## 1
Amino acid sequence: MAKRGKIAAILLNKCPRCHEGDMFKTGITGGIYNMHETCPYCDQRFETEPGFFWGAMYIGYGLSGGYMLSSVTLLMFVAGLSVNMAFLVAILGAIVILPINARLARSIWIHIYVGYDKELVDEIEEQKQHAVDA
Ligand SMILES: [Zn+2]
């Protein structure tokens, strides 16, 4: 059983193969795309081929579109703002969440292509245990 599920691993930007290692070196303030080349925990290569993360743009586009559609709808029909004000507020919000959206898109994209490897995680845990015992 994985310590954390796939959804949690995606949201926390964890490696898709082990759900342990961080994909990004720093927090968002340290650069949006400041990624490790390989997973610090299991050595999974993140950019599996040149240009791999170009596909994440489609995910980012979908996330942004969903955000804009839902926020403008809520701002207009729940908060009662005019169309122009709703778009203004939604666009300002979109700028603020852009870095989160960009990282989430990469995380979702790689989680589509790389699956969780329980045997590998068990093996690494076992090796670590031996290292502690020795
Ligand atoms: Zn990993």
## 2
Amino acid sequence: MIADGAGANTLEATRLYLQGLQPGDARGGAVGSLVVDGPGFTNAMQSVYPLDTRTVPGSDEQNPDVVYDPAQNYDATPVAGTNAAGYQRGFAGYDWNRATYPDSGNTASAISDGQKTYNNAINVDGSGDAQRSTAELAHSLGKATGVVSTVQFSDATPAAGGGAHNVARSNAQDIAAEMFGAGVLDVIAGTGNPDYNDDGQLRATPNYQWVGPEVWNALRDGSYASSDGGTWDLLQDRAEIIAAGSGEPTDERLAMLVQAFTGSNFYRSGASPAGETEIPFSVPRLDTSPTLTELSAAALNRLNADEDGLYISIEGGAVDRAMHANNFGRMIEEYIEFNDAVQYVVDWVGSGESRATWADTLLIVTADHDHLLFGPDGATIPYQSVLPDQDGDGVPEYAWFSNNHSNQLVPLYTAGANAEDTLALSDQRDVVLNAEGQAVAGSGRTYTDEAELGRYVLEQFQLGETIDWNSTAERVLANYAETGQWFFS
Ligand SMILES: [Zn+2]
């Protein structure tokens, strides 16, 4: 489960907001802390930096400034003034973060296929060669596989988590065609619906940016078949998606393209003007959009039909969109949406309704990358954490230092089978000492790296198994070699 863009301060902001609610508040049940703060979760961090070989001419060596380096991250040398985007520069460490950030393509790919790659890549390495993903491995082992998001299903994180391959995330129609056509995925859920706008209303003219007209029209009339002959059941209506969360699931593969184009809720009308704080939930969320929990329930109910087990990637995709927009209130909304889904998954694995048990299921709750969000005095106090509400609006105090990503470590929580192994993986220490020999603020944590985590997950799926890669994944790769296309036409 990936909350896109959610760094330590995103989680802290959500905790503080929830702690400020009264018991019995409309967000009741989640008051006080996050699910990952509860029992059973390990707690570490992971580094997120992209592959960057461009700055050492003639070699394939990683740019030494782009790896995660605690000394550069926590460099508290003051830097006066504002940058071109109008943000206070603050400290040398903030400048370093602004210069070395990854995107969701390479970070989600690293978690999915265990390889570092460049920004914008989807499950290909630095040379553009396809890498085998966890989704493909799980499918080769006969497991059910799915991908769920609150944003476009063919954008970077669900594309990588869903086992697609592309040299550029912007080739979204090709990515969509591979996700539906390759035969790897049993469930696809997200936005990108060509027929709806971001207020859940039908458009006059379809927009095929995220799925091409051939695939979309065939899905709509029920004629679409994957390369292996599998057919898709398409749900768009929220009530039908909720109904799919229980009872006997469809025999077909399950596509849920919710009635929204870019995000299930983040882009709805009524946002506060830039620079003003929007109070979370002050603009009603859309009745037409299923929650991430409702999508996850329908996905898990479908995947649970397979007795060989499952792999699923669930993304709270709009946390990142809210952070790009510097919309702190909607960021908190979207992280709460994600946290609710984590609670659902925890309950589901522990329930008698699922084939999964904590003895055979590993749950990973993390982010792909962070942004540059600190406390209100973050321009003068390096790496100041967001602070509890001080002006009575119920919203914690904060300041933005970018409208883009950063290279900071992100939280990594795991629960279930062999979860403690991920603590052993986290064998690097994020420590910078001050003149008195004490760890500077924010530092001191242990961390692993996303590619290491990705390789670990691939290994976990292969424990005690005989791998027959010569299945869909091989056919996808062979088809690419022959036709130059990632999908079957
Ligand atoms: Zn982003």
